[in-house]
Structures are given as structure tokens and as C-alpha cells.
Amino acid sequence: MDVLTKIRRWVAACKGVCASPDVLLRLAAGFAAVMAAAALYASSPLILTRLELSVYDMMLPLRAAENPSYAPVIIDIDERSLEAVGQWPWPRFLIADLAAALDRGGAAAIAFDALFSERDNSSPDEIAEYLRSEKNVSVTFEGLPDELSDYDKLMAEALENAPAVLAVFGSDEGNVETSGVPDAANVMERASKGAAPYEARLYRTSGGVFPLPEFRAVQMGTINVEPERDGIIRKASMVISIGGKIYPNLSLAALMTALGTKNLILGSGPDGLEYVRAGDFTIPVAPDGTLRVPYIGPARTYEYISAVDALRGNIPKDRLEGRIAFVGSSARGLADLHPTPYDPLCPGVENHAAVIDAVLTENWITEPLGAGMIQYAIILSVAFVSAVMFGFARPRVYVPLAAVLAGGIAGASAWCFSAGVYITPVYALVSEALSSVCLMFVRFLQEERGRIRVASRLALEMERRERAQADLNTARNIQASALTRVFPPFGVFGEMEAFAEMRPAKDVGGDFYDCFAIDDNRLAVLIADVSGKGVPAALFMMKAQSVIRNETFSAAGTSAGAILAAANGELCRGNDASMFVTVFMAIYDKKNGKLEFANAGHNPPVVARGRKARWLDSERNFVLGAFEGMDFPSQSVSFGEGDALVLYTDGVTESMNESGELFGDGRLIDLAERIFETDRPAREIVAAIDSEVASFAGNARQSDDVTVLVLKKTRKS
Questions:
Q1: In a domain, 455, yes or no
Q2: Residue 331 shares a structural domain with residue 396
Q3: Which range marks the domain in which residue 549 is found?
Q4: 593 and 510 assigned to the same domain
Q5: What is the DSSP letter of 615?
Q6: What angle separates helix 398-418 from helix 426-466, to the nearest 10 degrees?
Q7: Measuring CA to CA, which residue among 72, 354, 116 is closest to residue 217?
Q8: Around 33, how many Cα atoms within 13 Å sit in the side-chain half-sphere?
Q9: Average pLDDT over residues 665-677
């Protein structure tokens, strides 16, 4: 056969598979899952956004630098400074003194994280004017130097002589300036081929709160805070638009001042802004001009110096030399505390220090260009892999394959993050989850439909079997002859008493029990329930009973668990009908008075001791006949005088009355409690349980075999 012929046959086979209604339905379910995941990504519901942000915070340590940059230093208007100098805001002559002191200390830039938009009403000129206009009182200040009559003028002169940066707040509300907005930087644009206008993507306000006109000779930067949807700050807008003019944020403005430049280069591409450049520093930004701040720790990660120490000259000069000083407050009363991924109460001024740290160390966390399309591609790829996994793989490998895929998604995202590229794993995991749920549901429906078809065929078969009642009667007699009818069946165990009864749901049933002596010291009892009803169940029952008996006598010294394990191997071989049986087997040893037992998927028996009934604590394990190589651990309990063991099949607890109510475990244990309040022989115990179950069912059709076996020790051996 030539290669071309093989390819044609393979293509024809693939077409045949794809044309299958089941396959088409699975493909449709996978497509629906992809669309749902893509829609969730497009809409970004709050619950997934919060989850995404939490995952981002968990990955932050992967990108954190070992040590903070030395450049930023925080001049803290702390509680000690407020106690020493007075309440905030301080008179402007003190601000002037602070700026002059930091300048003398050699600071490369002095950025004030505070607004100076109103005049200082503590100036002598302002006090005199207020008294004249409001109190009709004329005052003069004798001996006061001219330079101290106007604190704002004094501060303006100090700022002009220092590398100062003042704060601006962009806003659309309140008393803001909307016309004549001053320039903050010499903005130069660098647009790549096919670049889109970036202004629409920036954070924009119609106006802002600016410093007093006499202060505007210095560099200005914005202090707008933009928390995420969960209220935590993770980003900083490196540039925003105020009244149509571009303003750097306070950190970037401080860097520009330290570099001695007012030039700000904005590079844009097809999606919007791509970078911001000041001097030799190129800062990659998102299309909306934001930078993800790679926080490396909680509050006070960077060096703090009390403002009162700076005012009084209590710090060495080399401690400020060449550094960027941010003047702000950590005092709780001034309410400038904001949540970050590491700290719910981080001083706002420290956010500026974190931005400078990221810029100077080039510790970026960026999203790749075309992040949205990349995310859609990831969603589609994960959905395709999930469709293959959950649509066509065997159910037993669902969990390990899903774990491998989820681990791969999370690991790839963490590796990218450690390299400075953020690609959220949340929506890929959502895509996997949706695909798995949809496809498993479809496969469940298809399997249920298959089971229904099988059930329909079985119903037709049962109708045909009803016409062969004579043959079924013969089968019933054969089955009855296989069950123990003479009690007690073990003459050498005079101290033991046993009795059993079975009411098949049909002419022949799948339940069976057995009682026999293994040797002079040990006797065995067991009860079992074969899957299914009718002749097949009866045939498998007889095979199972024979196999268990043979394995018991062929290895008489072994445990109940070992016997069930050997029987399981025999029943699995040639079990083309995929039938199985649940078995509870117990072996009594009169030498030690112990009852050793093992459970192969059967209902836990009831044990009576001291006229009290309780469930026997037994491991349920798996059924016989389903999988080879299964283990069935043995357990044991003491079995003394007056103790009784009640074995039953699920036909007892699942017996249903005309209202559809089940007999249930609770009624069985309550019934056992009543029965064992008095000392009754095994035969009466079985009769009482069977009578109670039959009375409960009433005229309802019996749906399952009802089998009860009681083993009781009447006296000491």
C-alpha cells in the first residue's frame, strides 16, 4: 500500500469519526466553553478580577529585588515632627527652611507629596489683612524683617533655589483650574508606524489643583492615586492629561529634576503609549500610561528620616547626597495611608519611592504587546487541549491530566512573571474548568443515553423471559438448592447459632449467603449482592459462591481479605459481561474468640453487644469482579457470648414504600436496637427484620432482593 493510499484512508477515517453525532456534540460543547471563557475575559466580572489581582499579589515576590534602591529617601512628617513643630500644615517659612536644609544636604531632588494650593494664612501680611477686613483692626509688626512678612514669598524663593518638585492633583470636581493650565514638561512625541492616538487612553481630567502661581517656577508632578477594583494600589500613572496638557507623576518629575531636564519623551504604538523617557531612562508603560509597581515589601521598606531632624540639621550631609527626597507623612492623623499588596496601611509617599526604585533598578513588570489577543489565543489553546482531554480520554485520567494542565498554566505564568512579563493564568484556568465541566456533562448525558438504550433492550429481553417462566422456575429451584437451608450448618460449633433468609425480587435473584465450617476451629459466614437481576445475576451468583468457597478451602489458613482478593482475580478473568458482586465475609475463630472480616463494597453489618446495636466499623473497599489486583484489608473484633452479627443486602435499606420513601439505614439500626433489647434466637431476629421490611413496603413492588443473615454466639466455646 502506497503512502498516498494510507493518507486517504486516514482522512476518510477522520471524517467518519468527526461525522459521529457524539463527536459533533462534544465539539459543540468545547466551542461553547471557549465562547464562555472569552466572554468572561472581555467582561472581566468582579469575582474573577479579584481572583486575578490576588494571584498577581501572590506572584509579586517572584519579581521583587533583594534590596531596595539607595536613591529614594523619605523625609517623614511623623508624629515626632508634629509634636516638636506643631500641627500640619506647617507655616510656609518652615517649609522653606526644610527645603533649604535638604538642599544643603545635597539632595538631587526634593519632591513634596503635599498640595500648596492656598495661601498661608499665618503670614504676618495675611494676619494684618484679615484683622483689617474682618475685625476693622489695624495692626503693624515692629522690628519684623521684610522677608518674613510674606511666608509664601519666602517659600517661593527657597523653592527656586532648591531642586524642588511640587504636587499637582488632577480632578474634574470642586474648585479646580480648568483654563490656563501651566506646562509641567517639554513633551516630545515619538510615534511608531501605525501608532494610534494615545491621549484617549490616558487618565484625563478637565482641570486640577495646582500650587500657588508664585510656586510654579519649579517642576510639578501629579499625586493622583488609582487603586484597583479591590481598593489596593498596584499601578502608578506615569503621565496623565490635565486640561489637555501632559503631566508626569511626582516620582517621574523628581527623576527629571534630579537629571536636570524638563524634556519628556512619549513613545506610542498601535495600542497607545509604549514607553516614557526621561534622560537616559526609558520606562515601559501600558497603553494607558500606567506602570505596574513591583513592590518589594511593606511600609518602611525604604529609609525614613524624621522631618524635624532635617529641619534642625541633625543628619549627616552624606546621608542625603545625590538622593531623591520625598517629603510626606506617615502620621495616621493626616490620613495619607493607602493599601498595597504588602501592607493595608502604607504611607502614600512610599508609593513614589517604590516607583523610583523600579525605574532606577529597571525592575519592570510589563504586559506584552497585544496582551488581549495573546490572552484569547491562550484561552483557545487551553480549550482545545481540554476538549481532547475531557472529550476523548478515559475518565480515570481526567484528574491527573487536569492537574498537569493546570500546573503547566500556573508554572508558565509564574516563569513569565519572574522574567518581568505579566500574563494572568486566571482566564486560562477558567477556560480549562469550563471545558472540563461542559465536556464531562455531555459525556455523562451520552453515557446515560447509552444506559437508557441498554435498559430498554433489557426490558424487552425481560418480556421475552417472562414467556419462558418454566425455565425460570427451574433456575429458581437450582438457585435455592445452592443456598444453605439447614441451620445451623456447622455441627462442631455448638456455641454458634445462624439463620438466613432471601426473598428474591424476581424469580431468581443476585443475592446469596453462605455458612460453613472451614475446619474444627474456624467457621465462615458471608453475604453477597451481584449486580443486576434475573438469570444473569443468578448465574454469576452461583459462580461467585463457588469461587469463594473454593478459595476458602484451598487456602484455609489465610485471612478473609486474602480469600476475597483471590476470588476477585478469578471473577475478573473472562468477565465479559462486566458483572461484579459486593461481599462481606467474616471468619470466626473459637480459639481466640475473634471475628475476622473483610468488606468488598458491601453494606456495613450491624453488630449487637450487651443488648445494644451499632454499625460494625468496616472498610468498604471495592467490589469483586471489576478490577484485578485489588487489595481487601482484613479487620477483626472480639466476638463473645451473646454477641450477634446481622448481615444484609441493600434490598433491606433500599426497600421502598408506595410513597417512594426508602426504609433506610436509620430504620434498620432502630429496628436492631428494639430487637436486641430482648434475647432472641437468630431465626426470630431474621424473621423480625424481614417482617418489618415487608410491612414498610406494603403493596409497593419489590425492586431488589431482600437477604438477611444473623450469626449469634449463644455461650462460651
A1: no
A2: no
A3: 473-713
A4: yes
A5: E
A6: 170
A7: 116
A8: 33
A9: 90
**Cα–Cα distance, 449 to 447 (Å, whole number):** 5
Give one word for 58, left, alpha or beta, with left for phi > 0 and alpha for psi -120 to 50: alpha
Amino acid at 351: N
> Helix axis angle, 21-43 relative to 371-392, nearest 10°?
150
- Nearest Cα to 514, choosing from 581, 585, 570, 563? 585
pLDDT tier, 226 (very low <50, low <70, confident <90, very high otherwise): confident
Distance (Å, whole) CA 103 – CA 1:
89
Q: Are strands 204-205 and 239-242 parallel, antiparallel or unpaired?
A: parallel
Contact 589, 522 (CB under 8 A): yes
Instruction: Give the pLDDT band (50/70/90) at residue 10.
Output: low
Q: Are 702 and 658 within 8 A, CB to CB? A: no
Q: How far is residue 229's CA from residue 48's CA, in Å, rounded to a whole number?
A: 11
More confident residue, 487 or 372: 372
Q: Is residue 140 part of a domain?
A: yes
Bridge partners for 529 per DSSP = 511, 582
Q: Which three cell numbers stand for residue 86?
A: 506643631
Per-residue model confidence (pLDDT) at position 686: 92
Q: How many domains does the chain have?
A: 3
C-alpha cell belonging to residue 537: 445475576
CB of 106 closer than 8 Å to CB of 393: no
All three cell numbers of 319, joined, read 546621608
Within a domain: 88: yes
Contact 319, 102 (CB under 8 A): no
Pairing of strands 594-600, 581-589: antiparallel
| Peptide bond connecting 488 to the previous residue in cis, omega within 30 degrees of 0 | yes
Q: How far is CA 694 from CA 480, 533, 613, 650, 707, in A?
A: 20, 19, 21, 14, 12
Which contiguous run of DSSP H or E holds residue 19? none
- According to DSSP H, which parts of 74-215 are helical? 79-85, 92-104, 124-135, 151-160
DSSP annotation of 486: S
Give the 3-state secondary structure of residue 382: helix
Say what the pTM is: 0.60
pLDDT in tens, 254-313: 999 999 999 999 999 888 899 999 999 999 999 999 999 989 889 999 999 999 999 998
CATH number at residue 626: 3.60.40.10
The one-letter amino acid at 248: P
User: Is 706 within the bounds of a domain?
Assistant: yes
What per-residue confidence (pLDDT) applies to 18? 46
CA distance 81 to 76: 8
**pLDDT tens digits, 538-549:** 788 888 888 998
User: Based on the domain organization, do 320 and 421 belong to the same domain?
Assistant: no
Give the Cα separation of 689 and 661 in Å (integer): 18
Distances (CA, A) of 225 to 181, 257, 352: 20, 22, 11
Predicted local confidence at residue 486, as pLDDT: 66
Three cell numbers at 288? 494607558
What are the helix (H) ranges across 260-392? Answer: 307-311, 348-361, 371-392
Same domain, 260 and 290: yes
Among 361, 383, 415, the domain-final residue is 361
What 3 state SS string does 528-550 have? EEECCCHHHHHHHHHHHHHHHHH
C-alpha cell at 683: 431465626
